[in-house]
Amino acid sequence: MNVSAKEKSLTYFNKHRKSKLAHNGYWRHDYKYILSAIKTIHPERLIDIGCGPGAFLQLVQDRFPEIQLNALDLSEEMVQETKERLADTAIITAGDAEKMPLDDSQYQCVTCNMSIHHYPHPQKAVNEMYRILINGGYVLLNDMDCITPIRCLANLLFPHLPGGDVKMYTRSEILSMLRKAGFTNIHYRKISPFSFLCSAEKKSYSSHPDR
Ligand SMILES: C[S@@+](CC[C@H](N)C(=O)[O-])C[C@H]1O[C@@H](n2cnc3c(N)ncnc32)[C@H](O)[C@@H]1O
């Protein structure tokens, strides 16, 4: 049977809610960079897409208790774990990043950490991030980036892994998705040998011509 990447992600992450790796945050060493970017944005409402078990959101809550927190994840088990972890102080929704069950123009900041490489149609997810941001809001996108031979090898291995990993997107693919969605003021930087953090602003003066 040909199981889709999304079905694989759902099954895998539903099972791993209580794993130590999940509990601590999958790429915890990157969080300090994302937290300092949040500090400069100073959002009133933030949503974390592909939140996993909420390790990152818990740090955001500890550091910035004034921010209203929201999150979305495909896995109902991860959603439940995040709800419990944040003691029901945040609004956590089960759903697909590529078709978010969320209203337009709600958040000043969208974060998405180590999740986009699970999306088969990442442009749809980036368009959705744009849609749910208010004008002047920022997306902070964090994912894997490494030297080309390792990226190519990882991309060959991904379909054989159990977690529904789809593709380690290149810097130019990420930049192109953000531009196509309508984002401006895009800054991409490597934050470790294996990861990047990209920020981009929604600044629309009229509706985007592609949608
Ligand atoms: C590697 S974990 C990262 C979790 C968390 N962001 C962190 O940094 O620890 C990837 C997460 O993305 C979620 N995910 C995968 N595909 C998704 C989709 N299409 N929509 C929403 N979430 C998705 C998975 O359920 C999982 O919780």
Describe this structure in words.
- The protein has 211 residues and is α/β, with parallel strands linked by helices.
- The protein has a single domain, classed as Rossmann fold (3-Layer(aba) Sandwich).
- 37% of the residues lie in helices and 24% in strands.
- The protein has 8 helices and 7 strands, in the order αααβαβαββαβααββ.
- The protein has a 7-stranded mixed sheet with strand order 3-2-1-4-5-7-6, with helices on both faces.
- Helix 6 crosses helix 8.
- The radius of gyration is 16 Å and the shape is globular.
- The model has no long low-confidence stretch (mean pLDDT 94).
- The chain binds S-adenosylmethionine (SAM).
Taken from the alpha-carbon principal axes, the silhouette is: globular
Q: Which molecules are bound besides the chains?
A: S-adenosylmethionine
Structurally, how many domains make up the residues? 1
Mean of residue pLDDT values: 94
CATH class placement: Alpha Beta
Oligomeric state of the chains in view: single chain
Q: From the helix content, strand content and strand pairing, which structural class follows?
A: alpha/beta
Order of helices and strands: HHHEHEHEEHEHHEE
Question: Would you identify the CATH architecture?
Answer: 3-Layer(aba) Sandwich
Going across the biggest sheet, name each strand in turn: 3-2-1-4-5-7-6
Could you give me the name of the CATH homologous superfamily? Vaccinia Virus protein VP39
The CATH topology corresponds to Rossmann fold
Strand content: 15-25%
SS summary, helix count: 8
Please describe the biggest sheet, giving its number of strands, its sense, and whether it closes into a barrel: 7 strands, mixed
